[in-house]
Amino acid sequence: MTEQKHILSILVDNQPGVLSRIAGLFSGRGYNIESLSVAETTDPLVSRITLVTKANAPVVEQIMKQLHKLINVIKVHELTGSSYVQREMALIKVQARPEHRAEILRIVDIFRCKVVDVGQGHYTLEVTGDEGKMDAILNLLKPIGIKEIAKTGIIALFREPK
Amino acid sequence: MKLTGAQILMKMLKEEGVDTIFGFPGGVVIDIYDELAKTDIRHILVRHEQGAVHAADGYARAGGKVGVCLVTSGPGATNTVTGIACAYMDSIPLVIFTGQVPTQLIGNDAFQEVDIVGITRPCTKHNYLVKRTEDLARIVKEAFIIAASGRPGPVLIDIPKDVSSTIITYKAPKKIELKSYKPTYSPNMKQLQRAVKLIKNAKKPIIFAGGGVVLSKGSKELTELAHKTRIPVTCSLMGLGVFPGTDPLWLGMIGMHGTYRANMCSGDCDLIIAVGVRFDDRVTGKTDTFAPNAKIVHIDIDPTSIRKNIPVAVPVVGDCKITLGLLNKLLDKEDLGDLKKKRKKWLDQIEKWKSTTPLAYKQKNIIKPQYVVEKLYELTKGSAIITTEVGQNQMWAAQYYHFNKPNHFITSGGLGVMGFGLPAAIGAQIACPKKLVVDIAGDGSIQMNIQEMATAEQYGLPVKIVILNNQYLGMVRQWQELFYGKRYSGTVMEHAPDFVKLAEAYGAVGLRATKPEEVEPVLIKGLSSHRTVIMDFAVEREECVYPMVPAGAPITEMLLA
What we know:
Number of domains of chain A: 2
Number of domains of chain B: 3
Strand content of chain B: 15-25%
Oligomer: heterodimer
Helix content of chain B: 25-40%
Strand order of the largest sheet of chain B: 3-2-4-5-7-6
Helix content of chain A: 25-40%
CATH superfamily of the largest domain in chain A: ACT domain
Strand content of chain A: 35-45%
Shape of chain B: globular
Largest interface: A-B, 19 and 17 residues
CATH architecture of the largest domain in chain B: 3-Layer(aba) Sandwich
């Protein structure tokens, strides 16, 4: 059975130790976490965790059941396979030699990202998008010289019926 | 009402109907112990915190109530971990209270500080650190609900010293609502209808029952199902007793040391009705060759048990007792045909397996361990509560003591804890003071919690310990004999205490049998005593447990001798 990427959206009690329970479940049972992002929802008692894992279908079924079994987990949804929007964000510090500056700004324009910090020898870009867009911009910036990068995990929500 | 945390804790324990606590005091739980002495809750002072948890576990398994432990912080807390993991694997409802250093010291590496909530996160059903005295009452209530409901399990509550000593104005907690915790008790009727259809059409069905049936108290419904449909029954180690071991439809235990007929049935059957089991590797052997011809109906309250190891045709999430009751009702409406005729071929085949390859041993001039267990069964007429240690003693107990009722076989099935049997027997004896409680032990495992002899003596508990003494760590030695060229690395245990003198040193009775003809007199004398008794049987040193399925092999491929 082939392993595929699955995006899970998990609502949990916003309490200390809950993230550790989830991370511990994944490490203890040998599941992998490709990315993880956590933040409070509009209800301060509830947090949303968006977690990306790679697994085959029976393992994903087991992961979802195991997550559900945790007392602090309120809801588990799998987004993969349904209609959803996903985003991740990156801050990319790219080398900006004079001869490259115009090209960087052109890329910024094409990808509709922002320059959020400028220095003598670098630009810091803020990029938001799905995985495809992230990969594309990184490929273009790599030859110019990426000094540092900070990326969030994927966040995602179901699309509502139109 | 102004109360300290410790007083609130006692109030909550009384409300939960707790009558016994197994514990060991220490610096940060003195406030709690001070209040405990003012209540009528019985405190059993163990000699090691691991013993406290196993005793509470035995108390829960024998008596059907939540077991409660109280220990101090640091080493007191870490000593409970094996017991907690054991209860977690076997789904036993426990609430464990650990003391913690005062809240303002947490994280400072204070004296006897340990992050027990962090340590026990993967081996508890849930756990809590109580940060404010105001939260204590609610947390205790939640803990008892979580421990005993759904698939039961241990819940740990870590209480810092200041939380138990602070005085607050007590307010009774509101009705507890756990919005994210709602176990499914009632099964999906459509799935049950599908199960009925499979049962009607099956030619070679078996029922496979486990610990879930014990926990849900569904033994009556299970037996009714088997009799109604004339389907033979096998059990996992944890299920022994839910179906009478003397019933003609009984197949014996399945798995690595299961009976020949039970294991052969799994290979041949066309339907398995699996109830309250989790298809552990000791049951299935090699999973892709397990029950190759069978459709599986799997009933369990825990959805994670279903399809974890084995593909299932009809998954049914629900409480075993409720589900079996409903299934019986559905079957009552069906015309099942002439079952005697319909099952004849299948039951004849099973009878053939049984008569050609029964559980067997030959008693010659050295005591056979199986003979001791069989004699014990005869003398107690199968009515004793049997606890076991882990290893050969456990398997011989499972094979040769025929259990007719649930809650009478108390064994560390999932985690396999050596040293479990004696403290568990103590807990079982406290839960059932009028019952005969016998720990079937090996000379290796009994030494792992032998200190609890003092506990048994202190409280006048007449538990009986049967040591099958082969001066080896017998189960590992058996593997070494069969699969490692008889290289007995680390398994020779020739230096052990004189168990008769040891019993006497603890103030108990010690008896010994070295010849087959002494077995029965020693058992009769030991079992009729009103005191704690150790009976030491010098058994055949290199006896093996058979049948045996080598690890990772299909369970139909057994070594028979």
